Amino acid sequence: MAEIRPFRAWRYNSSLTNQIQEFTSPLFDVVSQKQRDKLYQNPLNSIHLSVPLGENPAEDARKTLNKWIADGTIKQDDKPTIYVYYQYFSLPSLISKKKEYCRKGFVTMIKAYDWNENIILRHENTIPAAVNDRIELLEKTKLNVSPTHGLYGDNKFELEQYMDEAIKNPIYETEDYQGVREVFAKIDEPEIVEKFVNKIEDKKIVLADGHHRYESSMVYRQKCKAANPNHTGDELYNFHLMYLTNSNSNDLRILPTHRLLTDLELTEEQILEKLKEDFIIKPVENASDLNEMVWGKKWAFGLIFLDNAFKIRLKPEKWETMGWKFPDSVKNLDLTVLHYFFIEKIIGIKGKDQRKSTNIQFERNFTDCVTKVMKKEADLALITNAVTMKEVKEVCKSGFTMPQKSTYFYPKAICGFCFASVE
Predict the structure, then answer these.
(1) Is the link from the previous residue into 316 a cis peptide, with omega within 30 of 0?
(2) Which run of H or E residues covers position 292?
(3) Strand residues in 334-410 grouped as ranges (E)
(4) Which residues share a beta bridge with 10?
């Protein structure tokens, strides 16, 4: 079902390998403005291709790319290659005992299938404006700069033996902004590459991260196909750069994304009064305790105001009153409960308007949630639990999607190890 192919990556000149940590960059939405500003100061950092600045950012990225090619900053590999990518990391003590995990995967080109082909499965909706920005960048540069993250299932773990062997001789090894050890290697022996292609060809792929970037490749493929009377389906514009990991691995981790609400018309007293209908409310003396108090408890959330904090939990009998017409795999989700019973029923933001609402913000760091409420940068914070891999798979199978920003697969793949041309 899923067609992948090895590719000849554009990579930083080998003379720059010992400086690779100076050229890599994290995804734009997981770092602070201060961190981004520092990245932009380095004229060779990959952020100038992934999230360019300027009045015409896509055109500026094209010029930067052409300059880097011309002066040898980046060079193209000689052989079609599968790139092995391992990430060694630890999690906060709340989530697990201190241990090192290793998420194993590989970077490849995969056909940018339409959603209705049911080969690449999404679990979140996209925001049109963000997709349009990515399409413009792709059209100008003809380059996939950072890989999205996809999941395939293989309970025999047949590819790991080849990846384990390749990673013994890394091209790059560095530590990212979160302390994750990033190791990158390559496999270009044709007979081994073929094993990867054959293993994936009967799989469906769950898109874990990068919905906007993937959809931009999907739309770009449609545009190129329509403009090419001799289209065969084999052209490079049909493909997209993706980091594939095994969903059966115990080292696959999902972290929660909390909600911040701003510019609300309701007072704290009014919100608490409305809460009584559907939620059990428990005052909490220290907001800092909420993360642990709701951890692992179904339909339980932390609610933080400027001066008060509460643990709230949906009354079990109220679940059946949900007015949204979704399958149970979606309705059962903590975040669906939160978005319906709190954000729609209490705050008054209808489900259809929530994706584009400026009143809803997202924050992955619990401490930052507390800080932003204390600084009056948000009216309140809603502390959530992480979804599980089982829930992600069930939602994908249903054909429906989760509320926006439901999953945070940790760690994120970084940008800068390799770039993939689509021409």
Answers:
(1) no
(2) helix 290-294
(3) 360-363, 380-383, 408-410
(4) 76, 419
Question: What span, in angstroms and rounded, lies between the C-alpha atoms of 297 and 295?
Answer: 6
Based on the structure, what is the number of domains in the chain?
Answer: 2
3-state secondary structure of 227: helix
406 — pLDDT class (breaks 50, 70, 90): confident
Tell whether 162 and 276 lie within a shared domain.
Answer: no
pLDDT digits (tens, 9 = 90+) for 282-292: 999 999 899 88
Domain residue limits at 318: 257-385
φ and ψ at 85, to 5 degrees? -140, 115
Residue 315: which CATH number?
A: 3.30.1760
Whether residues 230 and 123 share a domain: the answer is yes
C-alpha span between 2 and 213 (Å, rounded): 18
Q: Which two tokens stand for residue 308?
A: 């008060």
Assess if residue 82 is contained within a domain. Answer: yes
Buried/exposed code over 296-330 (b: 16+ C-beta within 10 A; e: otherwise): eeebbbbbbbeeebbbbbbeeeebeebeeebeebb
Do 229 and 307 lie in one domain? The reply is no
Q: Cβ distance 343 to 350 under 8 Å?
A: no
**Amino acid found at 11:** R
Q: Are residues 153 and 183 in the same domain?
A: yes
Q: DSSP secondary-structure letter at 346?
A: T
Same domain for 206 and 76: yes
394 belongs to a structural domain:
no
Predicted confidence (pLDDT) per residue in 117-155, tens digit: 999 998 877 666 667 788 999 999 999 999 999 999 999
Q: Residue written as tokens 């493909």?
A: 239
